[in-house]
Structures are given as structure tokens and as C-alpha cells.
């Protein structure tokens, strides 16, 4: 008889820039939807890195291609909807001030099946001095809410293409 263990997603076991199955599947679904709706923006998906005390973090130094301009950013939580407590999940930013993020309910190019989406555009478009952006998850029953995730969260950024866009890296 085989026993299946339910493990919490852990970033500490990852070495190097590995991609989660959730991120790969969401990338596939996002680009499929992008083609369907003829969205002309560039889209990038990026896995989180482990921060302090259960935080999920991303660098605020976003790479762009020359001619692109930053439009929007979303943190996507690949939630296990069968897990108890996913309805009470709270997403809180870490710095400079702890702020509760609100679920983004409008339609986006990122399919709903990728997970819960939280608009974090303002955290990447302001001139704050922090070099990284981190979130922490919690539920009413659990101090850490990452037990309801299928995979660690990831960041999705949208970029407007310039008229003469090239493939050279720029500062955004």
C-alpha cells in the first residue's frame, strides 16, 4: 500500500533557477490566451525566491527590452482549492509598510486557472528604495498560509511594446 504525503511547497529545497510545474503550466495557458485575444503586450513570468520567515520575494529591478515600457505586475498564487482555509487567505506585503493586498477580480491575460491574482503594479512603479518586493501569506486558522498552495507564488509582468522594439536588454 502506498501512502501519499502532502508536502508544503518549499523554496529551500530548490537550487538555482528551477521552474515549478505551476509556472510552466501557467506560462503555457497565458500565451495560449494571449494568442486567442490577440494581446500585443510582452508578458514575463518569474518564480519567487525565499525571503525571511516564510516570505516570497522578487527583485524590483525588472529587466526589459529596449523600446518596452512597464504596464502591470501581478503576484499569482497557485492555490489548492481543495485545501481548507484557501477562502480566508490573506496576502500581506512586507516592506516598507505591511499592507494587505486585494484580490484582482477583473479579467486579465493570465487565466484564472493559474491561481489567485493580486495587482502589485504600484509596488514596482514607485521610486521606493527597496530592491526587492516580498509577500507573506496567512489564514485565520494558520499563521502561514502557504499550506494552501500547490506551488510557490510567481510574478507576472506586462510590458507595452515600442514601435521599433529590438531584442536588446535595457533598463526598462
TrEMBL record:
Protein known as: Uncharacterized protein
Amino acid at each position: 500500500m502506498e501512502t501519499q504525503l502532502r508536502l508544503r511547497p518549499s523554496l529551500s529545497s530548490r537550487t538555482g533557477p528551477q521552474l515549478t510545474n505551476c509556472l510552466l503550466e501557467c506560462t503555457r495557458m497565458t500565451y495560449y490566451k494571449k494568442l486567442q485575444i490577440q494581446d500585443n503586450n510582452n508578458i514575463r513570468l518569474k518564480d519567487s525566491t525565499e525571503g525571511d520567515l516564510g516570505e516570497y520575494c522578487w527583485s524590483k529591478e525588472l529587466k526589459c527590452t529596449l523600446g518596452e515600457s512597464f504596464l502591470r505586475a501581478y503576484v499569482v498564487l497557485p492555490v489548492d482549492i481543495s485545501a481548507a482555509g484557501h477562502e480566508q487567505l490573506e496576502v500581506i506585503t512586507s516592506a516598507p509598510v505591511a499592507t494587505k493586498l486585494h484580490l484582482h477580480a477583473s479579467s486579465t491575460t493570465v487565466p484564472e486557472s493559474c491561481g489567485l491574482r493580486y495587482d502589485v503594479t504600484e509596488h514596482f512603479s514607485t521610486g521606493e528604495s527597496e530592491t526587492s518586493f516580498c509577500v507573506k501569506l496567512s489564514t485565520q486558522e494558520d499563521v502561514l498560509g502557504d499550506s494552501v498552495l500547490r506551488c510557490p507564488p510567481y510574478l507576472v509582468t506586462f510590458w507595452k511594446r515600442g514601435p521599433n522594439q529590438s531584442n536588446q536588454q535595457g533598463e526598462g
